[in-house]
Design a protein that fits this description.
transcription; kinase; single chain; about 550 residues; 5-stranded parallel β-sheet; Rossmann fold; alpha/beta; Alpha-Beta Plaits; CheY-like_superfamily; 4 domains; HTH_AraC
């Protein structure tokens, strides 16, 4: 806590510094001023919690200081120390918020009691102010989220518009009785990669920054409001004024984006519709404008929905499925590139590529991956999680060049990399399966003397019993129990060649606690009992 001493006599200030119990009061810093004017400058700069002031001083008196504090720093607590027993001065102290009035010569106990009371009052009020600041910060953080939800709901359910009108008028300046509106859409998933990289993993900060830039332009003339569409990967602009100037407004916003982030955005523009019923239609038109824009057309950033749907090109990734499947199964990067090249050659011959087409091709890729997983892994439980992730159809990939324009070359590189990663993960999972089964076989060969069960092995290798049973037989041609029996019988045959070992000792040495059961298993495996086998070897 900071304490300010104001008195035109230095020896009085020095005396008070000696009398004040700093530890008891929690005083960390003691400031000094020789008059009210100097005190005001220190208060502005240092913001002390408690002020001890004389009343009669040159330049600016204690009374003037109290009046200034009352108007400009009411949070400060004031104790007056004066050599004048004057009722008018006492009344002035009380009138302007002083907490105590002490007469000189100063009594140490009285001074510390007055300061303790002032400090306690300041701390109580400071805690209230702290809580208020915290609530204010929380409200400021929640406010954009609140409006994101409210405005998104408004576009989905125009029936809420009537209840929201007054708040839109007061919060964003929407004119009373506004009859027409328009929606503009910005998609985040097709945004310039350089812009995303600037914000790293903090997509929320990216959205917050983009919305703020948009709202700087919209709020100046109260033209509308920008917000994040709730639950989606999209920013929406709701416009309600000067709708004939929307293209110019969006050009101005994009120039602002270029200055701020060194890149531009694509805007999908819906039609001007009646408020509120037409907002949903305007939103769909804005989204369709982005999906149908020709991505081969350079430096075109503002897009309007076409009057009619353009004819779709029949080019399909599925037409190249068999060559791609063989290439992926081979695991060869050269074969994968060779299998994809004819398809990309066909893509380059197109004069129009839309986001809708890319989305369709990406979904085709995901379908192929899923179908291949079913072929390569007949049991769905065997599919490694990383291969499921590689076939995820939700992660749309749109490759852009340094200018933020669609690049077929980069898209080919990205797409080829996806197939190569899928092939690599597939090969790795097979290798891992074989390695795991070989590890299990080696473990059995080393621990065949012990009581082994499929349950114990599954627990040791963190695999399911069903998975081990299936994969072990695929790898070795026999099930796990037969493999264990075969090892035990092979070891038993060697031990039976020693005539000094009893049958029970041989049984125990190869993992059988019951020599009768051992004899039964041995005869089933060899066609002879252990004794018969030993005699046969002796002959």
């Amino acid at each position: 806590m900071k304490l300010l001493l104001v008195d035109d006599e230095k020896h009085v200030r020095d005396a008070m510094k000696l009398l004040i119990d700093r530890d008891r009061l929690g005083v960390e810093t003691v400031l000094e001023a020789s008059d009210g004017r100097m005190a005001i400058e220190l208060i502005r700069l240092e913001k002390p919690a408690v002020i001890v002031t004389d009343m009669l001083m040159p330049a600016a008196s204690g009374a003037q200081l109290l009046e200034w504090l009352h108007a400009n720093a009411p949070e400060c607590k004031t104790v007056v120390v004066s050599g004048h027993d004057d009722f008018s001065l006492v009344r002035h102290t009380v009138q302007y918020g002083g907490t105590d009035y002490i007469l000189k010569p100063i009594d140490p106990e009285q001074l510390n009691e007055a300061l303790a009371k002032a400090a306690a009052a300041w701390r109580r009020e400071e805690e209230v102010r702290r809580r208020d600041r915290q609530r204010s910060m929380e409200m400021n953080e929640l406010k954009p989220v609140y409006w994101d939800k409210q405005l998104s709901a408004l576009l989905q359910d125009p029936g809420q518009f009537g209840a929201a009108c007054r708040r839109l008028e007061s919060e964003f300046g929407m004119p009373a009785g506004a009859a027409e509106g328009q929606i503009v859409s910005i998609r985040l998933d097709t945004m310039d990669k350089r812009l995303k990289d600037k914000f790293g993993d903090s997509q929320d900060l990216l959205v917050f920054s983009l919305v703020n830039v948009c709202n700087e332009y919209l709020s100046r003339a109260k033209l509308g409001v920008a917000f994040r569409f709730w639950g989606g990967n999209e920013i929406a602009l709701l416009l309600w004024q000067q709708l004939d100037r929307t293209p110019q407004l969006l050009e101005d916003i994009n120039n602002g984006m270029a200055r701020t982030f060194r890149c531009r955005l694509h805007f999908g523009v819906g039609g001007v519709k009646h408020l509120p019923a037409g907002l949903g239609d305007s939103l769909q038109e804005a989204r369709e404008a982005l999906r149908q824009r020709n991505m081969l057309q350079k430096n075109d950033w503002i897009h309007f929905a076409p009057a009619q749907q353009p004819a779709r090109h029949p080019l399909s990734l599925a037409d190249f499925e068999e060559s791609l499947r063989v290439a992926v199964k081979s695991g060869s990067a050269d074969q994968i590139q060779a299998a994809l090249q004819p398809w990309f050659d066909a893509v380059r011959r197109l004069d129009r590529i839309t986001l809708e087409q890319i989305d369709h091709w990406w979904n085709e890729y995901a379908v192929l991956n899923t179908r291949w997983l079913q072929q390569f892994f007949p049991n769905p439980d065997d599919v490694p999680p990383e291969l499921h992730a590689a076939a995820d159809p939700q992660r749309l990939v749109v490759a852009l060049d340094e200018d933020g324009q669609f690049s077929i070359a980069r898209w080919q590189q990205e797409f080829t990399g996806r197939f190569m990663r899928f092939a690599s993960l597939l090969a790795g999972s097979r290798h891992k399966e074989k390695s795991s089964m070989r590890d299990i076989a080696k473990y059995i060969e080393t621990h065949y003397r012990e009581e082994l069960s499929l349950h114990d092995i599954a627990a040791r290798f963190f695999l399911s019993r069903e998975y081990i049973s299936r994969k072990f037989k695929q790898e070795f041609g026999v099930n796990l129990s037969d493999f264990l029996t075969e090892i035990r019988m092979r070891k038993a045959k060697l031990l039976l060649q020693n005539p000094n070992l009893r049958i029970s000792e041989v049984a125990a040495d190869v993992g059988f606690s019951d020599d009768k059961y051992f004899s039964k298993v041995f005869k089933k495996a060899t066609g002879l009992s252990p004794a018969e086998y030993r005699k046969q070897r002796d002959v």
